[in-house]
Amino acid sequence: MTTTTTTDERAIAELQREHGPALFHFLLGLTFGDRQRAEDLVQETLVRAWQHPEAFAAPYDSMRPWLFTVGRRLAIDARRSRQARPAEVGDTLLESAPAVQDTADSAVHALDVREAVRTLSPEHRAVLVQIYFHGLSVTETAEALGIPAGTVKSRSYYALRLLSRNLPGYSPRSSARNTASRAEASATST
Prior knowledge:
Order of helices and strands: HHHHHHHHH
Number of strands: 0
Distance between the termini: 85 Å
Shape: rod-shaped
Helix content: over 70%
Radius of gyration: 37 Å
Number of helices: 9
Largest sheet: none
């Protein structure tokens, strides 16, 4: 005894001819007039009928209630899945949106600076923290640290020199060299 796992294609074609237009108009109402979506739901409903031959053996006078129930459930599922997804955005909205700055470079630079500051002696680091991170003047830094103003100037000068060595690509000399070499390269290429 062989069992069929799908409905006969002739039965599906007859089902489509007999109930397809009514099912389409029913689903068109459920999709708020979206013909494409209603057609897709009709097709999916008929696929379900094809996959479930036992529905044809049910004691119904007509397959229409079964088809409408399956179609309605498919429409509800489709609506729920669309509501779960974020709304699609058109190109014009994306073009008018402000550009978002990429913070990755600034984060990398901040990590490099932190690492370089950690290599400084505690005295040099304390001076830089007061002047550059707390915004104090040389005199205010001298008072806060209890050292002469000349020592604050000297420590900040040498601390910045050490930082420029420990931060390759950040020093004024290397950026001036890079600018000069780029200008020279562009002059020779033209």
